[in-house]
Design brief:
The complex is a heterodimer of chains A (132) and B (35).
Chain A: H1 2-6, E1 11-17, E2 22-27, H2 35-44, E3 48-62, E4 68-73, E5 76-80, H3 84-87, E6 98-107, E7 122-131
Parallel strand pairs in A: 5-7
Antiparallel strand pairs in A: 1-2, 3-4, 3-6, 4-5, 6-7
Chain B: H1 3-21, E1 23-32
Classes of the chains: A mainly beta (132), B alpha+beta (35).
């Protein structure tokens, strides 16, 4: 799995801990890493993903439906799950403020062996680390 | 300074600014079934 993930676009390093089943991925600075591709690659290597968390810097924007999203590069943004933490970011929508957040992008639903990756992943904010 | 060099420097600066402003910094996955 480590080699499989290491070959994905935008991946710099992959650290696997067999003891607690955690995989730490450090992206390259080219910004080409694709979390969905990583989930697919992990499943392709025969391992099931229970959770995927990420730390990202980006701008808060509103999509065409008026929902909040974190724009991590000019072509990619993640819709934000509305909750108490995301409400605190609403005022930053459309501003030049860059936020650093830690959030959960994927969590396995009980009973399902394989993830449904056809629907866009939504980011549940766990922590707002920085506003610049 | 040569105008072309100035344009290249500006474009380079803009690119670097975009890179440093927004990106995924770290990803952590919890997996099951790993041997």
């Amino acid at each position: 799995m480590k080699q499989h993930l290491g070959r994905q676009s935008g991946v710099q390093t992959v650290e696997v801990s067999l003891i607690d089943g955690k995989v730490q991925i450090t992206p390259k600075e080219d910004g080409r890493i694709d979390p969905v591709q990583l989930l697919k690659a992990t499943y392709d290597s025969g391992v099931s993903v229970a959770e995927m968390d990420l730390t990202a810097r980006g701008k808060i924007v509103k999509d065409s439906s008026g929902n909040l999203a974190l724009q991590v590069d000019p072509t990619r943004s993640f819709a934000i799950v509305p909750d108490q933490l995301s409400q605190g970011l609403e005022a930053l929508a459309g501003s030049q403020t860059v936020v650093t957040v830690r959030g959960q992008l994927y969590k396995k639903t009980s009973g399902k062996k394989k993830a449904d990756l056809s629907a866009p992943l939504k980011l549940q904010i766990l922590e707002v680390q920085k506003k610049e | 300074m040569n105008f072309k060099k100035l344009v290249v420097l500006l474009l380079l600066g803009f690119g670097l600014t975009c890179l440093s402003q927004a990106q995924i910094q770290h990803i952590e996955m919890r997996v099951e079934g790993m041997t």
